[in-house]
Amino acid sequence: MGSLHDHQEDQPLLQDLNVKIQQTSMVFPSKPSERRSLFLSNIDRVLNFDVETVHFFAGQKNFPAEVVADRLKKALADALVAYDFFAGRLKINRETSRLEIDCNGAGVGFVVASCDYNLDDVGDLVYPNPAFAQLIHKNNDFLKPGDHPLCVVQLTSFKCGGFAIGFSTSHTTFDGLSFKTFLDNLAALAANKPSSVTPCHDRHLLAARSPPRVTFSHPELLKLGASLPDTDPHAGVFHASSENLDFKIFRLSSDDISSLKDKAKSCEGGSSTARISGFNVITAHVWRCKALSAGGDDPDRSSNILYAVDIRPRVNPPLPKSYAGNAVLTAYATAKVKELEEWPLGRLVEMVKEGAIRITDEYARSAVDWGEIYSGFPNGEVLVSSWWKLGFAEVDYPWGKPKYSCPVVNHRKDIILLFPPIEGEGVNVLVALPPKEMDKFQTLFWEVLKAAGVP
């Protein structure tokens, strides 16, 4: 059976990487482009916060840090020709009061830094060490007050020759799939090869209808009131919790996932023949554990789980796979706590599956139109954010594939992350909860697997 991994029980975390900034600069597009304003869809607008990822690389004799820095800067400059919006800045259109990107060629930030430790000294790269935040440079006030690049890249070299590349990017620019495409193109350019994919920038493909038509109730969206104009281009909705939280990683092997699938198929309410995806069964499992560990004695309390669904193939006509903006919507499933406790796993898996099936072209258009009418954003008890199969660790740079790629984790108890292991099959489930809730979650998490007869 899989294992609970709590790094703090194994060895003390390296809390200070002692990172020293060597140089900060801007990278500009290698060729000039016409200045323009880029329309942002209602999906883009609500994702106005930064996403931070770190990509670790083993040392390569032919690619010392200074060579990587030069190749990376040149590749970025070339990438900013096709991705001209990435070198722009967020602004409010005075006529429409909407958030847009001013494609003004102002550039992305670039930081060269060093660390006094070997990469092996950092320890387990899987565990969400808060010190990894030192491998990221914030976008705010980068080189001068008031300047907020949409991307800052930090290259941090370790004593052993290994290094980390940290990206801080505005979520308004990319979703996970389009950022993976950007990284593939960046890696190709760093190898002096042409870009692998030409990005599609037409975000009007996900513009609201005129007039907007909301044809579904959208309980997955929190309505704050009538539509409000965008007033601050840097006012996001993503906030961390101040509670004391335990962080634990639950490691599921491919055998564990198969056992969960078998359990779901054998349950009344589940299909014995229909294909069950690993994502659906894991999401159903963590939903039950999260809801039952949350405390409170009200069995009639409603619990809803949210998870992202790629709508590129779901809208009509389908969006190109190269669509460079945000093309994900939040699917949901809702049940009462007593139902989550009593219903078989198979039924919960079906509910998660139905949540994704619900997102048809009309549902997606209705959700986009909802954002045109109301001020609000996705809201639920728990959001499952899957980095599991985005493939960031499969990007092939001239200096090799990453040893590991991971998000810099925020202090949030309402987000559960799924991401791949460093080696082999399976998945890591990262959970952050107050200590008492974590104890209950942990017990519940393994109960189903034990009941399935997994040793």
TrEMBL record:
Gene3D superfamilies: Chloramphenicol acetyltransferase-like domain (3.30.559.10). One of its GO terms (molecular function) is acyltransferase activity, transferring groups other than amino-acyl groups. InterPro entries: CAT-like_dom_sf (IPR023213), Plant_Fungal_Acyltransferase (IPR050317). It comes from the Eukaryota. PANTHER family: ACYLTRANSFERASE GLAUCE (PTHR31642:SF189), TRICHOTHECENE 3-O-ACETYLTRANSFERASE (PTHR31642). Belongs to the plant acyltransferase family. This is Omega-hydroxypalmitate O-feruloyl transferase. It comes from Acacia crassicarpa.
